[in-house]
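Data card: per-record layout.
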Amino acid sequence: MKTSAVVLLIVGLLIETAGFMADRTNVFSFVLPLIATEYTSGMRGVATLESTKSLEPQSPGFRTAAEIFKGALKKQNPGKRIDHIRVLRFRRTGMKFGESITKTLKVFLSDEHEFDWTVEALVTELEEIRQSRLTIAAMCIFSLGIFLQIVGFLVENRAGRRLHDSGAT
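The structure for this 169-residue chain is written out next.
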């Protein structure tokens, strides 16, 4: 068996395993910032909101939170042009008590409007981003592993055929 074919098969298998395990970021936490940077940044913003009750443009995670809020605003107001509006800041305003405790936010916009939002809505959107990025990364890594195994198989098959052909003559 040719050494390069064995190496490709083993590397392919290892990469497939890594792709399969990509959704285990709670175990491999160093992977998450590489795969889901928006999630990591946004969660820093949530942590800032929790500790300081405010998220300003210079705060870590502000840009991600602002993009998510504008996306939610676009979904609620289809057809309206809101691209020119900027989020100025987020401020934690308190909690609502009902079936569960909801942490409320006030979002201040450049057009002088204020919107009520929740930390939970932001975290839900961040979790969707995280899951989407992890799924895509896992599929790509797994596919790369399969590709390398196929290349290894072809290299081995070709080398085996050459040996067989040269031994027959």
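Known properties of this structure: The chain has a mean pLDDT of 82. Strands lie at 54-55, 87-97, 101-109, 114-118.

See the next section for split statistics.
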